[in-house]
Amino acid sequence: MGMKTIDSSKGKMRNTYMAILIPLGIAINFVGGTIASKLSLPLFLDSIGTAIVAAIMGPFVGAVSGVGFNIISSIVNGNILGSLFGICNIATAFIVGFMARADKFRTIVHAIIATVAVAVANALLGAPIAVVVYGGIQGSGVDLLVAGLLSFGNDILSAAFLARLPINLADKGIACFAAWLILKRLPENMRNLTGGKRANADA
């Protein structure tokens, strides 16, 4: 009876935090992405919320928050095809979320590994989407690097990928380290919400 009560309590707490954190992650992504766009920064800043939610709630909840942002953002901006970048947010959520679930998002080394993995995944996935949706030039700070690489004889897909690699290292570094720092400072009960073995090991 006691175990069932505890499990029920944990389930209700997870559902409550899920209802709070999914829209919060969407809002953080929206604010960050808007700032980067308005200031034409060579960053995206639209996956910080995704990484935070994934680190706390796990990969699938993080992915829901990330894709939710991309869908809402594409509707607001009148570019439905832009929602395809939700694939990049899914990659971010899965890498950070599964690392957190496996208890491999605790140290600064873990945060660095997550940054590199997320950056490479986003560059690989984002480059072809940018070429298909925007022709490689999407009206952001990334375009300067793309144009520079094109001038050196790179094809548009290679230029889009190579331009995104260093930018994603910085951009996803901000997202991953923000998620890591927040996760470290959360109370223990909120660091056991990712599901899987990690929660059982820490309980």
UniProtKB/TrEMBL annotation:
The entry's keywords: Membrane, Transmembrane, Transmembrane helix
Domain of life: Bacteria
Keyword Transmembrane helix: yes
Membrane-spanning ranges: 17-36, 48-72, 78-100, 112-137
The protein's name in its UniProt record: Putative membrane protein
Species assigned in the record: Herbinix hemicellulosilytica
Lineage of the species this protein comes from: Bacteria, Bacillati, Bacillota, Clostridia, Lachnospirales
